[in-house]
Amino acid sequence: MVPIADCGISACGLVLLYCTGAGTGANRKIKFWSEGGAEFSGNVGVGNDPHTTYKMDIADRIRIRSSSASSTAGIALNNSNNSVISAFIGTKDLDLVGIYGSVSGWGLLMNTNTGALGIGYQNPVAGYRLSVLGNQYVNGLIATSGDAEIGGGAQVSGNLNVGGFMGMGGYLMFQ
After folding, report:
1. pTM for this prediction
2. Which end of the chain has fewer CB atoms at under 10 Å, N or C?
3. Which whole number is the average pLDDT over 45-57?
């Protein structure tokens, strides 16, 4: 096979697609220039096997950038019939990344400076690794090797085992 040194497609005096080869064999690099985008049919492999079976297969990390200070970087996900964007995964602002639902809003956020997670909060509560707004359902054991604090009522349907001091600032009801 003879390496391509130069190729181009033009129409009406505009360069629509132009590629230049550099290097040889596995080190060959191709650059694309386009006046209005590019359309590829088939599958695209970047940094890996060019004969991938996926529509896009990228080796290593990718970078998604915001286009301006008023936009955020991320990936918009369409619903199954492509009629509406149902979710977004990306940055909310300078310090928060998460998952956004088109109906529910920001459901899960992480502060990139502290690692704190917020579920249902627009900003995770400072000083806590996990902040949850709303009711929680747990079907299993909640275990702690430290203190547990309940800032409201607690309903226990089953056993409550306390292996240490239990302080109360309100009332305790047993049924």
Report:
1. 0.66
2. N
3. 80
